[in-house]
């Protein structure tokens, strides 16, 4: 999968520029997420990782996920309690996720005007946003048009 290879190379470069460690475990967790067709749950990641590393435990996976999220390399799909690779980790603005309920495909959008409007409205109401997650659940084109 050349797309996941490019994503991993970009992630390694980004981590190096930021002076943070992109350990083999972090890299492997990102690789597994990037190669998945939809989001992966933490325990699915743990099961796969345990096949390769007998010492893998839940904290190992959760620490790797926390790092990858902090670096903008992975997003948590709140409604599914799953994780998906960010296709453009250099994008520092908010995002929206389109999630197909049938096949699990996840598409990332960057509608900055939507984020700006929400942020402005929150500020107007005196609300301090810590994290924003916009998820749209439905059916992708392939599933919608499938017989």
Automatic annotation (TrEMBL):
Principal location listed in the UniProt entry: cytoplasm
Source species, domain of life: Bacteria
InterPro entries in the record: FUR, Fur_C, WH-like_DNA-bd_sf, WH_DNA-bd_sf
Protease as UniProt keyword: no
Keywords: Cytoplasm, DNA-binding, Iron, Metal-binding, Repressor, Transcription, Transcription regulation, Zinc
Record Pfam families: FUR
Subcellular location: Cytoplasm
Keyword Cytoplasm in record: yes
Family that this chain belongs to: Belongs to the Fur family.
Subunit details: Homodimer.
Name the record gives this protein: Ferric uptake regulation protein
Lineage, uppermost ranks: Bacteria, Pseudomonadati, Pseudomonadota, Gammaproteobacteria, Oceanospirillales
């Amino acid at each position: 999968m050349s797309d996941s290879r490019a994503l991993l190379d970009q992630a390694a470069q980004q981590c190096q520029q930021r002076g943070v460690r992109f350990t083999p475990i972090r890299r492997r967790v990102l690789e597994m997420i990037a190669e998945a067709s939809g989001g992966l749950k933490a325990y699915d990641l743990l099961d796969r990782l345990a096949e390769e590393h007998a010492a893998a435990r839940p904290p190992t996976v959760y620490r790797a996920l926390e790092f990858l999220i902090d670096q903008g390399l992975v997003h948590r799909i709140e409604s599914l309690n799953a994780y998906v690779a960010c296709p453009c980790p250099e994008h520092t603005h908010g995002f929206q996720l389109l999630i197909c309920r049938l096949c699990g495909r996840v598409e990332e959008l960057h509608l900055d005007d939507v984020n700006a409007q929400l942020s402005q409205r929150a500020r107007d109401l005196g609300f301090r946003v810590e994290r924003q997650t916009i998820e749209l659940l439905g059916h992708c084109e392939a599933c919608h048009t499938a017989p």
